[in-house]
Amino acid sequence: MNYSKGKQLDQADGTVTFNRSTLNDIALGKLKLGNLAESGDVQIDGDKAKFKEMLGNFDKFYFWFTIAAP
Predict the structure, then answer these.
(1) How far is residue 11 CA from its own chain's centroid?
(2) Which residues pair with residue 44 across a beta bridge?
(3) Interior angle at CA 65, CA 60 and CA 66, nearest 5
C-alpha cells in the first residue's frame, strides 16, 4: 500500500478513497476501515477481495502493551 500525491499505479489492484477527517478517526480508533466501505464513507474501486486481504495484513496494537521489559 503506497501513497504518492498525484500519482497512481497503472496496474493497481484497487483504489481506496476517503477524506482526511475519516483518516484521523481511523487512526484514533474511532472508526474501522472495513465497516466504512459498507457505509459509503470510503469508496473502493477495483478488487474488493484484495481490499479485504489488505485489511488482514494490519497489525493490532493494544493500548496497554509493554514498552520496555526489565
Answers:
(1) 19
(2) 16
(3) 140
Q: Is 29 left (phi over 0), alpha (psi -120 to 50) or beta?
A: left
Q: What is the pLDDT of residues 2-25, one digit of tens each?
A: 677 788 778 888 888 888 888 888
Q: How many CB atoms lie under 10 A from the CB of residue 12?
A: 12
Q: Which of these, 15, 45, 39, lies nearest to 26 by C-alpha position? A: 39
Could you tell me if 42 and 33 are in contact, meaning their C-beta atoms sit under 8 angstroms apart? yes
Show the beta-strand stretches assigned E in the chain: 14-17, 43-46
More confident residue, 43 or 65: 43
